Amino acid sequence: MTGLQTARDCGVGIRGVAMAIDSVVWFGLFLVATTAIGAATGELQTTAEGIQSNLEGTPAQMALGLWLGLAIGYHTLLEWLFGRTIGKYLVSIQVVNTDGSSLSLWRSLVRNLLRIVDWLPLFYALGILSMLVSSEYRRLGDRLGRTRVVRR
C-alpha cells in the first residue's frame, strides 16, 4: 500500500485520547449489559430516580462478561470494517497491518482480545509500557496481531 510511506506511527498520547473517547462508548455498553442482565434476571427496578440494576454474584459476573464481549466486539468489528473506532476516527488515526494493508477479522480479533492483557494490571499500564519500549509504539496486542496504529 502506497499510503504506508506517508503514515506515521502513533504514540501513547494520541492513542490515549482515542481510548478516552472510546471509554464513553464502553460506559454506554456497560449500561446496556447491566440493564440487559438485570432485565433477564428480574433484578431491574424502576424507581423515582430512574432504572437500576443491583447485580450481585452470578448475574454481576454475567453482566461483566457481556460487557467485555460487547467492548471487545466494538473494537474488533469497527477496526476490521473501517480501520478505526469512533475515538480513532475523531483523532484521525487508524489500525493497519504492519505492511499498511487493511486488517483481517482475525488480526483485529487477536489485537483486541489482547486489549484485556494490555489493560492489566492498572488501566493500560502494561499496554503503555509495551508501547514505550517499542520503536513503532506497538502494544502487545499490536505485536501479536501484527498491526500498527498510524496517522496518515
Provide a quick synopsis of the model.
This protein has 152 residues and is an alpha+beta fold.
Give a written overview of the molecule.
The radius of gyration is 17 Å and the shape is elongated. The protein has seven helices and five strands, in the order βαββααβααααβ. 28% of the residues are buried. 59% of the residues lie in helices and 12% in strands. β2 (44-47) and β3 form a beta hairpin. The mean pLDDT is 89. With 152 residues, it is an alpha+beta fold. It has helices spanning 12-41, 57-82, 86-90, 105-113, 115-119, 125-132, 140-145, and strands spanning 8-9, 44-47, 50-53, 94-97, 147-151. α1 (12-41) crosses α2 (57-82) and α2 crosses α4 (105-113). The strands form two sheets. Strands 1-5-4 form a three-stranded antiparallel beta sheet.
Distance between the termini: 12 Å
**Could you tell me the mean pLDDT?**
89
Alpha-beta content class: alpha+beta
Q: What is the molecular shape? A: elongated
**Strand share of the residues?**
5-15%
SSE run: EHEEHHEHHHHE
What is the β-strand count? Answer: 5
Radius of gyration from the alpha-carbon trace, in angstroms: 17 Å
Unreliable parts: none
Please outline the major beta sheet.
Answer: 3 strands, antiparallel
Helix content: 55-70%
Number of helical segments with 4 or more residues: 7
Strand arrangement within the widest β-sheet reads: 1-5-4
List the helices and strands and how they pair.
Layout: E1 8-9, H1 12-41, E2 44-47, E3 50-53, H2 57-82, H3 86-90, E4 94-97, H4 105-113, H5 115-119, H6 125-132, H7 140-145, E5 147-151
Antiparallel strand pairs: 1-5, 2-3, 4-5
Helix pairs in contact: 1-2, 2-4
